[in-house]
Amino acid sequence: MCIHDSITDMKKEKTKKPRSYKSPLRERLTEETKKAILDGVALVILDTGLDSLSMQKVAERAQVSERTLYRHFQTKEYLLDEFWDRFNHQTGLVELPANYEQLREYITKRYMACDKNDQFMKAYLFSQTYRTQRNATAPLRKNTIAKSIKEFTEGMNAKNKKRLSASVYIFYDLFSWITMNEIWEMKTEESVETAKWAIATLLESASK
Fold it and tell me: In the predicted model, what is the mean pLDDT of residues 95-124?
């Protein structure tokens, strides 16, 4: 074996890809850091509202450096997407309802999630960011309601379908939860039952 070949072989050994090894400790620390950052988002929303949320403020509340924050979440949009994804999974609101029974169950989870995160949800719902998101996702939410009450609107003309869907949506919308909570001073269970009762009454009346 010549010297050239030996050096080449040594270089090959040095350039081999390192063995894939996932450190349980490193993974745990990474997850803890991500959790701290996402918790920081909620704290900033409670502190100053969603509209003034910045990466710097999140880093401060999460007690991490901005460099660490950007290593995990490259943009504010990506950070908020991850935040809402975690929130929806924690509250069981991942799958949108596709029929009437699922709609009833979804409203229960939706109202309960709001009551559990009362101050945070109110800060979010009264933000300009939420209004923008609300307008952008209007077609999706209208379609969700239409699908959920389809069994009650078969045979209706387009005008009445629209009226019924709009009426049902009022109690699906989270501002109904705020109204029942603040104006009528209803607790979680009562506001949930009121929303479901109102929707059932509307659908029963429209079906006659």
Answer: 94
Summarize pLDDT for 35-84 with one digit per residue, the tens.
Answer: 999 999 999 999 999 999 999 999 999 999 999 999 999 999 999 999 99
Alpha-carbon dihedral sign for residues 96, 99, 103, 109: negative
Distances in whole angstroms, Cα of residue 153 to Cα of each of 33, 85, 107: 49, 32, 20
Euclidean distance between CA atoms 26 and 66, whole angstroms: 19
The domains found in the chain, sorted by start residue, are: 24-87 (1.10.10.60), 95-207 (no CATH)
Return mean pLDDT, the chain: 88
pTM of the model: 0.79
Going by C-beta distance under 8 Å and a sequence separation of 6 or more, which residues neighbour residue 65?
59
Residue 41 in tokens: 């988002």
Helix axes 128-136, 138-148, angle to 10 degrees: 60
